[in-house]
């Protein structure tokens, strides 16, 4: 099958693939710009985006805002006519500041999950920025769309379903993750499509629905499109690309990973998360690592009781200290066996596997 274009209001992506936002620092302008240039939707993660700024530890919020502006500018330079999004966790402190910064600096779409972003419509007022909640259940879809309809008289421009096989923070219990190990979440997807259809009728507009979580190849994409979805979100596959903003050591963790290395960890935000097994994960399962420098990054994190500082753990990993950091990944990270380019990966996903060079 030929993939349909993804239409989001007046935006059109030639390839219906959204590169999922990955923080801290895994998907910045390098990766997002490359994906957008190829015709997909590139996404910058706003999670502690200023971690490389010289005043990050002492002036965290201003450093993040400055860096977010810069990353949006750089991504736009790489893909002048491409679609650039920003992923912002609702559970993060100063959520509204980052959302307004993204909208005012040309983000085409704000993707927002890890909670229900009730006031996101206010943050994009007066701009052309589209809004896309990331949800995991029919109930969550109904709640956020009802909230936006009632309090803001508007609806989503796009809805992203993140299934239990996604990487990083998961909006599911460990039991739910276990329950869905052998299925594709199809029943819930159909129910969410029904929920969204009600709001399409109410607002007389098309609301594309996207699915992410465990999607690895063209066959997976074809399957989810056949369910009535408008596209897919993929994150893990884009880590092992030359354009990904993470260190080579981080990328090589994916390349070297075996199926048994993909595990579930407990995050300081009181949510399970999927990551690669390493000495850090083993250590935090057995003892608490006291927080010595709190970045006040999460609304629900108490530095006096949290098992470890997730900001420091993610920064160490993305910079290359993968034994002492947290390496988030999707359920199928172990299937990756090489580092490629975004161009070649997009070609593989849309046209099938590339021919092997035996010369």
Question: What is the topology?
Answer:
Blueprint: E1 6-8, E2 11-13, E3 17-19, H1 29-37, E4 41-45, H2 60-78, E5 83-89, H3 95-104, E6 109-113, H4 120-123, E7 130-135, H5 138-152, E8 159-162, E9 168-169, H6 174-179, H7 186-203, E10 209-212, H8 218-226, E11 231-234, H9 236-239, H10 248-256, E12 262-266, E13 272-276, H11 279-286, H12 310-319, H13 342-351
Parallel strand pairs: 3-11, 4-5, 5-6, 6-7, 7-8, 8-10, 10-11
Antiparallel strand pairs: 1-2, 9-13, 12-13
Can you put this structure into words, describing what you see?
The chain is 36% helix and 16% strand. The chain is an alpha/beta fold. An eight-stranded parallel sheet has the order 3-11-10-8-7-6-5-4. Strands 9-13-12 form a three-stranded antiparallel sheet, with no helix packed on it. A two-stranded antiparallel sheet has the order 1-2. Helix 4 links the parallel strand 6 (109-113) and strand 7 (130-135). The longest helix is centred in the first third of the chain and has 19 residues, at 60-78. It is globular, with a radius of gyration of 19 Å. The relative contact order is 0.14. The model has no long low-confidence stretch (mean pLDDT 91).
């Amino acid at each position: 099958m030929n993939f349909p274009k993804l239409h989001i209001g007046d935006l059109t992506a030639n390839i219906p693939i959204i590169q999922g936002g990955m923080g801290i620092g895994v998907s910045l302008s390098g990766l997002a710009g490359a994906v957008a240039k190829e015709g997909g939707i590139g996404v910058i993660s706003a999670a502690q985006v200023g971690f490389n700024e010289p005043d990050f530890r002492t002036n965290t919020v201003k450093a993040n805002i400055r860096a977010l502006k810069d990353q949006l500018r750089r991504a736009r330079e790489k893909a002048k006519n491409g679609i650039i999004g920003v992923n912002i966790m609702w559970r993060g402190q100063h959520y509204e500041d980052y959302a307004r910064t993204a909208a005012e600096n040309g983000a085409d779409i704000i993707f927002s999950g890890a909670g229900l972003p009730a006031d996101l419509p206010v943050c994009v007022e007066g701009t052309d920025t589209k809004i896309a909640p990331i949800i995991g259940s029919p109930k969550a879809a109904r709640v956020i769309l009802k909230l936006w309809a009632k309090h803001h008289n508007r609806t989503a421009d796009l809805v992203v379903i993140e299934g239990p096989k996604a990487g990083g923070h998961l909006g599911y219990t460990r039991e739910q993750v276990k329950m869905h190990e052998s299925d594709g979440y199809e029943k819930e997807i159909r129910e969410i499509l029904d929920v969204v259809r009600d709001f399409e009728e109410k607002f007389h507009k098309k609301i594309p629905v996207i699915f992410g979580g465990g999607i690895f190849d063209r066959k997976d994409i074809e399957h989810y499109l056949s369910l009535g979805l408008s596209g897919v979100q993929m994150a893990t596959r884009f880590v092992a690309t030359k354009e990904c903003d993470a260190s080579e050591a981080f990328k090589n963790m994916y390349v070297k990973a075996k199926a048994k290395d993909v595990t579930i960890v407990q995050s300081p935000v009181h949510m399970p998360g999927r990551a690669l097994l390493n000495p850090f994960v083993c250590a935090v399962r057995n003892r608490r690592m006291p927080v010595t420098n709190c970045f006040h990054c999460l609304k629900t994190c108490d530095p006096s009781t949290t098992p470890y500082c997730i900001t420091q753990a993610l920064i160490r990993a993305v910079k290359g200290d993968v034994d002492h950091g947290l390496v988030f990944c999707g359920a199928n990270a172990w299937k990756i066996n090489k580092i490629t380019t975004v161009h070649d990966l997009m070609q593989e996903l849309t046209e099938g596997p590339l021919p092997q060079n035996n010369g």
